[in-house]
Amino acid sequence: MSRWKISAHPVSWLTLLVTSLAILITSLDAAILPSVLPQVKEAFGLNDTQAGAVNSVFFVSTIAGALLFGWLSDIVGNGYRRSWVWIAAMALSVVGGVFTFVLASSWVAFQLMRVVMGISRGGSEPTNVAIVGEWWQVENRGFAVGAHHIGFPLGQFFAPALVAALLGATNWQTTFLVLPLIGVPIMIAQARLGTRRNQQKVYDWISERGLTPPLPSVERGERAPNPLRLLKGVLRVANVRRAILLNFGFLWCELGLSTFLVVYLTDHTTMSTGTAILASGASGLTGWIGQIGWGTVSDHLGRKRVLLVCVAGWVVTVVPLLAVGSAWQAWVLLLLWGLFRNAPYPVIYSLVIDSAPGQAGSAMGLMIAVTTGLGGAIVSTVAGFAADHWGWGWTFVLLVAGPVLALVPLLRIRDSARARVAVPA
Question: Where does the chain cross the membrane (predicted)?
């Protein structure tokens, strides 16, 4: 059991806490609009297809943010230098939250702020994942990335609960002020913690205990001459290409389902909007168990085996949602989905960092751009169109096809954790 024991330098633990809170902001950012989508539809007179297009604008913008900030985080330098790139990306979300509140009555302004916040989402997540991957020893990378992703299930639960409470006291525009209120203190904490001195302490601690540092040193690596060459190098890594397709399959299902979950529950059951919003966040209560647990298991049994379990878990928990008819059934099924919902992402991200350690920012940026950005943009509109024209049954079939088809690239992935040898970049 000693090999399952997790220990790290105190700074590594603090970095894990701050980056987890940073992911919480990303999760809140993604969860607020779906939670208030019924109110947005009413305010601007939208049908489901048009409402899906609103979210598509957000996800299209993440493509630019992920590629730009992912590349910048590698160019500026790895380790502690990435903190400033993340802070710059997060600042856009703060600005977007403030101006959405101020100008949300204008359709043009609302759409423009979705663009700003989409760029922030695209840029902050890959940079943040790369940060945590470079402040923990390789032997516990799956645990660290999984624990750092605890912000996602927390956001998935607390965002709907917070929105439901705020809607009872104020209007939907006010919910976007949550982002700057939480984001600014986290930005300050990241700036104070992410220093060269702190990173050197961590790397000395890792080396003294015979563990594997995530990078050879804290010194600046060779700068890539241009973004196209850097991305070309990333795409040469077979594991990265297959991980992108795999991540796309999971996100296709999650983003499509989460965008319309409140709408589906209010249409398909007798649940009120407030009850449906609260229930939609139920998976967040169990999500942290799945992602920390499966992330840790992947350090020892392999990334590939864990991801196969996640595919099966998604199918057996998402499909029964089609038959939900009451609040308690929705809660039970969504709590079960939570055990698998967030689990694949930290495992996939760990796989990517294992496979391209020197290009983690660009690799993660490319993945977020293709999967979250492009996938989210397409599936939001496609799911809305399917719900309008074919009904929820075919919509669910369309969404579940994502993780099922993801088995194709998954079966060809080389298991980086079990091999303990990085694929050359």
Answer: 54-72, 84-110, 172-191, 244-265, 271-294, 306-324, 330-352, 364-386, 392-411
Distance, CA of 143 to CA of 296 (rounded, Å): 4
CA-CA-CA-CA dihedral for 321, 59, 343, 341, to nearest 10: -10
User: Is residue 222 classed as helix, strand or coil in its secondary structure?
Assistant: coil
Burial of 325 (0-12, 13-18, 19+ CB in 10 A): exposed
Nearest-angstrom CA–CA distance, 78 and 358: 8
- Is 71 in contact with 231 (CB distance < 8 Å)? yes
For residues 103, 106, 107 and 110, what is the CA-based torsion angle, rounded to 10 degrees?
A: 0
Arithmetic mean of pLDDT over the chain:
82
- Of 15, 312, 248, 270, nearest to 145 (Cα)? 15
The C-alpha atoms of residue 305 and residue 314 are separated, in whole angstroms, by: 15
Tokens of 312: 């099966």
**Structural domains in the chain?**
10-210+227-419 (1.20.1250.20)
Tokens of 395: 């919509």
Would the pLDDT of 424 be above 60? no
376 close to 251: Cβ distance less than 8 angstroms: yes
pTM, full prediction: 0.72
Which pLDDT tens digit goes with each residue over 48-57?
Answer: 777 777 777 7
Helices (H), 172-237: 178-193, 196-208, 227-235
What average pLDDT does the segment 276-285 reach? Answer: 83
> What's the sign of the alpha-carbon dihedral 111, 117, 119, 122?
negative
Tell me how far apart the alpha carbons of residues 294 and 339 are, in angstroms, rounded to a whole number.
Answer: 9
The span from the CA of 337 to the CA of 402, in Å, is 15
